[in-house]
Every structure is written in C-alpha cells, then in structure tokens.
Write a structure and sequence with these properties.
The structure holds two protein chains of two kinds.
Chain A: H1 18-33, E1 39-44, E2 56-62, E3 65-70, H2 82-85, H3 88-92, H4 102-111, E4 121-123, E5 134-136, H5 139-157, E6 162-163, H6 170-179, E7 184-186, H7 192-201, H8 214-219, E8 223-227, H9 238-252, E9 256-259, H10 265-270, E10 273-275, H11 282-295, H12 301-307, E11 308-309, H13 311-318, H14 343-350, H15 354-366, E12 370-374, H16 376-379, H17 384-397, E13 451-454, H18 458-469, H19 475-482, H20 488-491, E14 498-501, H21 511-514, H22 518-526, E15 530-535, E16 547-550, E17 560-564, E18 572-576, H23 589-609, H24 619-641, H25 650-655, E19 661-662, H26 673-677, E20 688-689, H27 693-696, E21 746-749, H28 765-768, E22 775-778, H29 779-784, E23 792-797, E24 800-809, E25 816-818, E26 832-833, E27 856-863
Parallel strand pairs in A: 6-14, 7-13, 8-9, 8-12, 9-10, 11-20, 14-15, 15-16, 21-25, 22-24, 24-26
Antiparallel strand pairs in A: 1-2, 2-3, 4-5, 4-16, 17-18, 18-19, 21-27, 22-25, 23-24, 23-27
Chain B: E1 2-3, E2 10-11, H1 21-28, E3 35-36, E4 45-46, H2 52-56, H3 62-66, H4 77-84, H5 96-99, H6 119-127, H7 144-148, H8 167-174
Antiparallel strand pairs in B: 1-2, 3-4
Classes of the chains: A alpha/beta, B mainly alpha.
C-alpha cells in the first residue's frame, strides 16, 4: 500500500515564505526566459499519413534552428475545448485548429537524430552491402562515380539498365525521360484498389462520385458504419480530427458502428457498437446485407434503374441465380454458383451472426443518408476489389449514392477532390506529385520513363528477367508475372544493373521495409552492379547502398508550400518555412536530381529537368524564384477563383507569420448545394457500372488499358486473371479459410502505428518510448502457445522469421496476430530478424489481380528463448 | 520543490533536481508525478510544470491546446467542478477523499447497442474456419472459455499503473501497442 502524506487542502496551506516565493519567481522566470529570442514560424506537417493531411505546426525558431513544435492556433486562440465555442457552421466549414498528432511533435527529433546522414558516403572497402559501413567522400566524387557508371552502363547494357524500386518516383521518371534511359514501375499500393476499380465503375480517380467528407458525417449522416476505418489508431494526422468529428457525431446521437477484428481505441471512444469480423471476409458480410435488402425489397427500383448498370447480374449472383461470368482463367467462374448468399451463408465465413447482418442491412437500407466508410485496410487484402465494389453496390442500391451524402467510398478520411496545383507550372516539375515524392503516379505517367512492372513487383522483374535470359521463361510470361505489359519491343531490352533509391520520404525511401517480401527484395538487391540512395537518415534500406547522398529533411528543411484537402475537411494552402540550418553537406532532393542531370547531360539537361536551374551555387535563389512564380502564377489565381479575396503575397507566405489560408468546403464541394447539382458519372453509360462491360467483353478484357473515352489506364496489371465483371465472393488467399492454415494457423495483419508513418520516425527515441513494437496476439492464442505478455516470441512463415516481444490482449479476436508496419530489420547470421519488420511475412498472393501488395499473410508464433541477439 | 500560491503548480527547483529529497517526495506521491532520468538515486527528476510560464502569459497549458480529441480543459478548480461534476478518481487511482486531486474526469458516453449481437453465437462462428476451408484445417481456437476468461498472468497490461518501481517498469506501463 502506498503511504500518503497527511493532506493539506490548498486553503489551509500556509503561504510561501518570502525566500521561497523569491525562488518560485526565479523558477517561473527561468521557464519564461527559455523562450526568449524565439520567433514564431508557421509550418506544416508533411507526414504521409493519408497523402493529403497536413496539420499546422507552429514552430519556435531560435538562431535558425527549430526548437519547439506547437499546435496550430489559426482559429479559437487559447481555446482548448473548441467544440464548446464552435457553431454548427464552424463545424461544417471546418473552422478549427489543425492540431497535429504525436508524429508532428516528434518530427523535430527526426532532424537531430544520430542516424542523420550529413555527407556523401561510399561503401567501405571490403564491407558487404547491408553492413552499413561507409566512408566519407565529397559530393563531386559521389556524383562523378555514379554518373560515370551510368554513362558507361547505358552504352554497355542499353537504356533499361537503370530502375527504381517500390514505389513509383515521378522525379526519377522525369529524369529518365529527359536523359533517355531508365525505367520504372507503376502504383503506390495504399489505395490502388480504389484507384483501379473506381474508374471502371465510373467514379473516376480518387472517388469522384459519391462523397462523404468528415463534416458531412456530422451534418447529414443519420448512421455511420465504418469498415476497418480507425481514425484514432492508425495512419492519419488529420484523421485525429476525423476521430474528433466522429466523437462529436456520436455525442449528437448519430449511431456509429465499427466493424473491425480488433476492439480499437476508436471502438472505445466513438463507436456505439463494435462488431468483430474475420479479416478478409468483408465482401461476404456486404453480400449478406445486400441479400436481405434485395429479398425484402428495401430499395428504390426507379433510383437503381436510373443510376446503376448491372443490377440484374449482381443481384442474380447474390440471390444464387447463377449467371455467366468470365472463366478463361479459372473455369469455375464461367458460370456463377447458385448459392443463395444469405446472412446464414455469410455468418459462417465472416463470423458475424446472421441476425446481426440482417438487422444491419435493414437499418442501413432504411436510414438515409447513411455513411458506409471502408478503409483501404479492408481492400489491401486478397480480392479487396470485390469488397470495394460491394460497398459501392450497396450505396447505390440504398439510394445513398451517387447523390446524397451517404457515399460508400472514402478510402481515406473523406474523398475530397485533390487539387493538383503545386508544381504544375509547365516544364517545371513533375505534374501533380511533389518533387522526389513517390506518388500514385497517375499524372506523372505522361512525363515518365517507360513502365515495365508494378512497382512493388520490382524484385520479380529483376529476378525473373534472369530466367528469361536463361531461356526458362518468355518475356510475355515475365510481363504477366511482374504486373505490367510493357511496350512489346522494349520488353526484351530490360536489363537491370543499377537501382536508384532516390526518394527521401514517404514509403518509397525504405522499400525493403515498406514493400512486401523483404527477403526476396534483398535477393534482387544482390543482383545489382550499383545501388545509390539519396536519403536523410541511415535506415535499413540505405545500409544496402553503394553510394549515399545526404539530403535535407523534406518537411522542415526544404522551403515549400502547397495545398491540402486536410483529409476531407476542406482545402487549405499550407506553408512550409523551414529550419535555416541544414546539417553538414545535405542538399534538397531536387538539387540532387539537378546535380545528376548536369553531370550526365550538362546544363541543358539540368534546365530541362528544372527550368529555374542556373548552377549549383545558385540553388537557394533559383528555388525561391521557382516558388515565387509558382505562388504568383498558379496558386494565387486558383485561390482567387475559389473565393479567397486577398491571398497573401509571396513574401508574406515566405515569412510564414500566420497559419494556413483556409478555403471552406462550399467553395468547391461538399455543401448541401451539392445534392441538387448532381454528379456526372464518368462511364460509358453515365451510370455507376456495377457490371463492367470492359471486364466482361473478351475483345477488351485484359487486352487494352483504355477506358471508354480512350484515356489510358496507366495503372492496370496486364493479366486480369479471374477478375469478374461483377463482385463475387472469393475466399481470401492466405486468409482464415485457406488450406495453408494447417501449417500457419494465424492470420497476420500489419496496420499502421500511431507513432510513426510508414517508417518515418522509427528511430526517433521520443517516439519509440511510446510503444513496444512487437507481436500483438489474443489471449486464447497466447494461452495455446504458452506465451505471456512481454515474452519474446518467434513469428515465422515460409518467407522468413522474426523475434519480438509479445503483446497479449483480449482486444484482438483469436486466430489473428498483428505487427505494426514500418520499422526496421536486423538479421542475425541465422536469418532471424530482431527488428520486427512485418513485410518479411506479407504477400504471397499472386492470384487476386487488382489488389496491390497484400498487407496480410499466414504465420505461426511460438515462445522463443532468446540468445545473444537480445 | 515548491507548491506556489498563485495557481497551485508544484515546481521542482532546477538547481536541486538531483536532490535525494525528491526520492522521498516520490515515495509519498500516489500519482507518480515525478519522473527520474534513471534509477540512480541522484538521477535528475522532472515533473509537469502546469506550463506555468504559459499561464503567466495568459495561455492555457500546451497539453490542453494539443489534444486531438479536444478532451482536456484547464481552469480554476471551482469553475471546472461546476461545469463537469465531481468525478475525481479513475480505476487504479488513490482515494480522492484523501489525496484531493485538482483533477476532474468526464465519463465516457453510455454505449447503445444499435443492432442485436449474440456474442455466444459469434464465438461459435469464430471457432470454425469457415465453409471454404479444408475439413482438416484446425479450429481457430479450442475452447471458448480461453477467449472469454483468459487465465491470470497472460495479459499483464490490464490496469492503470500511475507509479512504477523503476524506469524499466515505468516504460512498461506507459508504452503500448494499441
């Protein structure tokens, strides 16, 4: 028992003595004086926590160095409980402080990490790749060695000796096009399922159609159903504001249901009800719901006729009336099964009782508008395309889409249009994407090097090209396996020798950790003659480079501004006015590219890549000229067109003495006027195509990458395998029903963490002290294996093995384990990873055609008695 | 260490932050308000300053201004009592009648069951692999009781621990994977 001092109520406490008071005054003064000489500079968090979510940093800068990051105060200065002072209109217009999360505040320590790379380096003589032993060299030597090799290699091996791994890198692709050599892959994974399937349904890229932004959930929704959407737990900066809005919705009395295999913080804080579901079975649940709605006639036939193509085909499948499918890959789909997809059918698959499915279906059908929000987590599993399409089917079936604020989509927090303003000056930078950023690549395709593979399949492209050269495989078969059908005459010229890891941030910069199947990627790495990396930190992947270029932190050391939709809350122009002290010999990532261009192709090439370039010594000035032009010629007119009467001047923006410029939601979308305006469905029929003719027609299926307008789908695997024109239920490959469970009985999930984004901040001590990275396992599974919380466990499957502490919980359903993504790997000599890199295990499903790198797989776990490695 | 008169902030004297007396204060504090850099008895101690430097300038503490869920508020205790009631203790906290904390908590919202859910039936369903699994695939778990009543000692992080014996334990109780 704790021994307590005798309490002394404040009112009875004798006042401090004069001496003590003097000392208190000195302590308080000391605390105040710590901040003397600081200036306030506004900045934005650039963590890729959902691609469009930039919270506002109020930084305190002293002598050019950022000393503190504080929360935004653009609205409601000095108000903590903002909800108490906000009007419904404030909520609707998203007039609130863009408060950041733990990631934003920890970003400061990203700059001053002991792992910071501050000068160019070359692998130490005799050192092996991966050992991380380097010697310092000069920028000149580094550039000369790299470009010297590139020039020789292009002559010796042909143009396609040079490639970039996961994920698509527009800055690199642009360089390749200008230089005339190099190739790249398509796709960024995260929500590629949406990016691929939504255009097929006429919803355009990034959910052009049915929208449901966060303020809508509060203002219009009468029911919120969230599938795998956990704003408070994973992967969103703005999402934490989303969690707050969800909480406000619940306080307002809007029923909120979370469907997730884990009882998350979200379930605790803003859900009325949590319904656990077996991972990878969402489509079965949705079909069970659709079955009820169809049988009980809980839909408006006129609405469906007006807005949907394929009602008959999809309904027939769900009601077990069969129908003609596509069976040229898998004959079982030539004719659909005649199983009635009732809630009783679904419950055995998804683990949600039929009675619950039935009532959920009735509630969803009768409540308008209702928001059915699915997160990319539900579609990053095998056959995630059917989950996504079922969500859309249900939303249209129940008249929630396309008009009303009840859309089914929302791959991220919301699905706001994504303004492509920054960097879109012709001939300046890769369109759409930020420089050096791995973006979805849709817009960058026109600028880029030829595409040869799907970016996360880069290692297959490398490994299988050897099989082709050895006569064991054809180039056509190779193209099928690597996820893209490159221009036929080019395929045989693919001759990978140099790997370019030139992306400083997001997921791409640490692809060995962030893309599926780490061990196979490591094998492909060994095939390379030269590997270079431009990065700010010594992370797992950088240890495998031969030459390393030091680059600035893209969030706080590169001047930048841009636009954000803030996770579906509304547009804002955000500012990035960084630290003035750049450590060592770091250069910005764009400067690195310009340097390479100048070395291989002279000033002409460098100027083509970046038209403001006048030489390395003028970089800072050239960059400012570019930013000024960009602001004045592109952004300001755009802001004015959106109703911002007096946008700040460039000098004001540069000084960053105030918060962001906010454009409210009704400037462009999302307000109630939207309902009346209607939505233009971007499909041949002008309707939502639940049944898609391009997918069904053998003359177009898999034979073209074009939509009905002739626009090229840059992002589509060439082999469509058994992808059906409607949604069907296909058991999750390597899921809970897979035969492989006999060997590996646990389904591994790999969610994001609240304390890092992808791998960013994985080495920041202040962030790491907040979590214990390990294997999250249910009490039932732990008991069966003799595991207690904190025990070191070994987790393994046929792709590799790792050892980490177990976190035993009854919040996770049994039969599942979780390891959060984005950390590091450290292999012992026996090949055991002690870092806890989950992508050692993920993947292994090559059958489902659309879903990108899978974030799940089957594994087993056992208690492990550590040796010297711990 | 002083409890100053104006706001009631308890402040460590930075010149005496390694004083052994702070260990005694730590022994007495049931809330674990003091943290030490290491287990060395003369390790530097620190604690929340109530952001007294900000309060002196009319600003609210930074935690209040940072909370994503806008869940924190700061002000004179009597005002907050009027507004939020008198819940002064969470599970695992000391008896507020003795410790008289200057903190008030707001209860979570009451849960509503929106659709019926038979958890016993759900567990039966979860136990089976599913209709598409081979007949000889293992069940998901062997006993429902293992799911609903895990034996003691397996799950250790199941309570609020405000005060740890040492730094290692403090890190254990304050880190998580949720």
């Amino acid at each position: 028992m704790l021994k307590l001092l005798k309490p002394s109520p404040a009112s009875l406490k004798p006042p401090l003595s004069a001496d003590a008071q003097q000392r208190v005054n000195a302590i308080v003064k000391g605390l105040i004086d710590r901040h003397s000489g600081e200036e306030i500079v506004y900045n934005s968090c650039r963590a890729n926590c959902g691609a469009t979510s930039q919270c506002i940093m109020k930084t305190r800068v002293k002598n050019g160095v950022i000393v503190t990051i504080e929360p935004d105060d653009s609205f409601h200065q000095n108000v903590g409980r903002e909800d108490e002072v906000m009007t419904p209109e404030d909520f609707d217009k998203a007039r609130f402080q863009r408060r950041g999360c733990a990631i934003m505040y920890n970003w400061l320590n990203q700059l001053y990490s002991p792992n910071r790379i501050t000068y160019p380096m070359k692998r130490a003589p005799g050192a092996k790749r991966g050992e991380g032993k380097f010697v310092r060299i000069s920028w000149d030597q580094a550039l000369n060695e790299v470009t010297g090799y590139m020039k020789q290699a292009r002559d010796k091996y042909g143009p396609f000796f040079l490639l970039s791994p996961y994920s698509h890198n527009p800055a690199f692709a642009r360089f390749c096009r200008l230089w005339g050599a190099g190739c790249s892959g398509w796709g960024a994974c995260s929500d590629d399922v949406g990016r691929i399937m939504e255009p097929f349904m006429g919803l355009g890229y990034q959910s052009k159609g049915p929208k449901h932004d966060m303020p809508d959930c509060l203002k219009y929704s009468k029911l919120n159903i969230l599938i795998g959407m956990t704003h408070a737990t994973t992967h969103y900066g703005a999402g934490y504001s989303s969690a707050w809005y969800r909480r406000m919705a619940r306080e307002k009395g809007i029923p909120t249901i979370i469907i997730d295999p884990k009882y998350t913080w979200d379930a605790e804080v803003y859900a009325d009800q949590w319904i656990p579901i077996k991972p990878g079975t969402d489509a079965a649940l949705l079909m069970g719901m659709a079955n009820v709605i169809l049988k009980e006639g809980l839909y408006d036939k006129a609405w469906v006729d007006k807005w949907m193509v394929g009602f008959q085909q999809q309904s027939d499948y769900i009601l077990g009336k069969g129908g003609k499918g596509v069976g040229d890959y898998d004959p079982q789909y030539a004719q659909y099964d005649t199983i009635d997809k009732t809630p009783e059918w679904a419950e055995k698959i998804c683990g949600v009782p039929a009675e619950t499915i039935r009532e959920l279906a009735r509630l969803y059908a009768k409540t308008k508008p209702a928001n059915l929000a699915r997160h990319a987590s539900s579609t990053r599993k095998s056959y995630g395309e059917y989950t996504l399409r079922m969500c859309t089917f249900l939303a249209v079936l129940t008249s929630n889409a396309p008009y009303v604020h009840g859309g089914s989509t929302g791959s991220y927090c919301g699905s706001a249009p994504w303004p492509k303003i920054m960097g879109s000056l012709p001939g300046v930078l890769p369109g759409g994407g930020e420089i050096g950023q791995s973006s979805a690549g849709g817009l960058a395709a026109g600028y880029g090097a030829p595409t040869f593979y799907r970016s996360y399949q880069w290692w297959k492209a490398v490994a299988y090209s050897d099989l082709v050269r050895a006569g064991k495989m054809t180039w056509d078969r190779w193209a099928t396996l690597v996820g893209f059908n490159a221009h036929p005459p080019l395929k045989s010229m693919f001759n990978p020798k140099m790997l370019w890891m030139g992306s400083n941030h997001n997921h791409g910069g640490n692809f060995l950790v962030m893309a599926e199947n780490t061990n196979m990627q490591l094998k492909a790495i060994e095939r390379m003659e030269l590997i270079i990396q431009a990065h700010s930190k010594m992370i797992s992947t950088v240890r495998y480079a031969d030459i390393v270029f030091p680059v600035s932190d893209w969030a706080l050391e590169i001047p930048w501004f841009g636009l954000s939709t803030y996770g579906g809350f509304g547009n804002m122009a955000y500012l990035s006015a960084p630290s003035k002290k750049i450590p060592g010999e770091c250069k910005s990532i764009a400067q690195f590219y310009a340097n390479i261009c100048e070395k291989v192709g002279g000033m002409d090439l460098a100027k083509q890549w970046f038209k403001y370039y006048t030489g390395d010594q003028n970089w800072d000035q050239d960059w400012m000229t570019f930013l000024k032009d960009s602001w004045e010629k592109v952004t300001v007119p755009w802001l004015k067109s959106k109703g911002v009467a007096n946008p700040p001047s460039f000098d004001e923006v540069k000084a960053a003495k105030s918060g962001p410029v906010i454009m409210y939601r009704n400037e462009e979308y999302g307000d109630d006027t939207w309902c009346g305006q209607g939505v233009e469905i971007d499909s041949k029929s002008g309707k939502v195509e639940i049944y898609n003719s391009i997918l069904a027609d053998p003359t177009t299926r898999g034979k073209q990458h074009y939509d009905h307008t002739g626009k090229k789908y840059g992002q589509m695997p060439n082999d469509w395998k058994d992808l059906q024109p409607i949604s069907v239920y296909h058991p999750c490959v390597n899921g809970m029903e897979d035969a492989k469970t006999k060997q590996y009985p646990l389904m591994l999930l790999s969610p994001q963490s609240r304390f890092r984004i992808h791998y960013m901040l994985q080495d920041v001590a202040t962030a790491r002290e907040c979590y214990r990275h390990g294997v999250i396992i249910s009490a039932a599974d732990a008991k069966a294996r003799g595991i207690k919380d904190g025990d070191i466990v070994r987790i393994w499957n046929d792709q590799g093995q790792s050892a980490r502490p177990a976190y035993v919980t009854n919040r996770l359903m049994p039969g599942i384990v979780q390891m959060r993504t984005g950390i590091e790997f450290n292999f012992t000599s026996s090949g055991l990873d002690t870092g806890g890199c989950v992508n050692i295990f993920t993947g292994g499903d090559d059958i489902s055609p659309v879903t990108p790198a899978k974030i799940t797989n089957l594994v087993d776990v056992e208690r492990y008695l550590p040796g010297d490695e711990f | 260490m002083y409890k100053e008169d104006k706001y009631g902030a308890v402040l460590i004297d930075p010149d005496k932050a390694t004083s052994i007396d702070l260990r005694k204060a730590n022994d007495a504090c049931p809330y674990g308000a003091l943290v030490f850099e290491s287990d060395d008895m003369r390790a530097k101690a620190s604690k929340c300053t109530m952001c007294i430097d900000r309060i002196e300038q009319g600003l609210k503490p930074i935690c209040v201004m940072s909370c994503d869920m806008r869940a924190l508020e700061f002000g004179p205790l009597e005002d907050l009592l009027k507004k939020y009631g008198n819940l002064r203790q969470l599970d695992g906290m000391p008896d507020p009648n003795i410790s008289k904390p200057a903190a008030i908590f707001k209860k979570q919202l009451d849960r509503r069951q929106i659709v019926p859910y038979n958890s016993d039936k759900a567990l039966d369903l979860w136990q089976g692999r599913g209709p598409n699994a081979p007949a000889d695939a293992p069940q998901v778990f062997t006993s429902k009781n293992d799911v609903t009543n895990p034996p003691d000692g397996l799950i250790r992080k199941n309570k609020l621990v405000l005060k740890a014996k040492n730094v290692e334990e403090m890190l254990y109780w304050t880190t998580h994977d949720e």
